[in-house]
Recover the amino acids of this structure.
């Protein structure tokens, strides 16, 4: 049985009602071709919705260490770069940072997970544009949430962004500033195609490569 994320149950209910309505309409229509078409659309719409909002069980790797960064999203690594921090966040302005960006296609699991244990010391929502998620400008121009975490024992920081894409129009995050969080915990999702940016200290070690597929809550992407 497919486990459905609570972040998508409102959409699942709406699609269920639409699918049932299409199926009933198809049965009532006497035209055989139209009936088959409506029934097919009804079934495909329902199956895609269930697939998109799936929430599979994930476990941290057995060899996981507290200074390692777990991927917060499923998808493909599209950016590995060193940038200069130009925003107001939990890193000083002007500081050199390493950036890892993950692109989520509509077929990926879209439930997001905490990348490292610590305390949420920065939280910001930005109402922006809806450029395609693989456009690198989307990182600073699109609608997004920005979440910063600091480790209590080391003082090391991380910032990650849920970024809406051209199709994705809703970001969900159930997290609060000051909250203690653990690596691998679920905290939200981005609905439909989207992107996740992770910013870490420039001296951190990147453990993934471009075009590599990563899994939220399981793939180790860096060491602080």
């Amino acid at each position: 049985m497919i486990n459905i994320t609570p972040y998508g149950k409102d959409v699942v209910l709406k699609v269920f009602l639409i699918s049932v309505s299409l199926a009933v309409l198809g049965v009532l229509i006497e035209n055989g071709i139209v009936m088959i078409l409506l029934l097919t659309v009804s079934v495909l719409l329902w199956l895609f919705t269930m697939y998109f909002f799936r929430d599979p069980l994930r476990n941290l790797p057995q060899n996981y260490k507290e200074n390692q960064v777990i991927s917060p999203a499923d998808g493909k690594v599209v950016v590995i770069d060193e940038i200069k921090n130009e925003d107001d966040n939990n890193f000083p302005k002007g500081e050199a940072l390493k950036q890892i960006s993950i692109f989520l296609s509509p077929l990926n699991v879209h439930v997001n997970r905490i990348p490292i244990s610590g305390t949420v010391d920065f939280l910001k929502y930005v109402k922006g544009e809806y450029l395609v998620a693989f456009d690198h400008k989307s990182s600073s121009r699109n609608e997004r949430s920005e979440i910063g975490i600091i480790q209590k024992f080391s003082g090391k920081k991380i910032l990650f962004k849920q970024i809406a894409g051209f199709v994705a129009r809703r970001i969900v995050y159930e997290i609060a500033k000051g909250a203690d969080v653990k690596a691998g915990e679920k905290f939200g999702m981005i609905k439909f195609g989207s992107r996740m940016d992770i910013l870490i200290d420039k001296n951190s070690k990147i453990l993934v490569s471009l075009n590599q597929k990563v899994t939220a809550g399981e793939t180790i992407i860096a060491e602080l």
Summary: The radius of gyration is 19 Å. The chain has two domains: 6-52, 68-223. Residues 32-52 form the longest helix (21 residues). DSSP finds three helices and 14 strands in the chain.
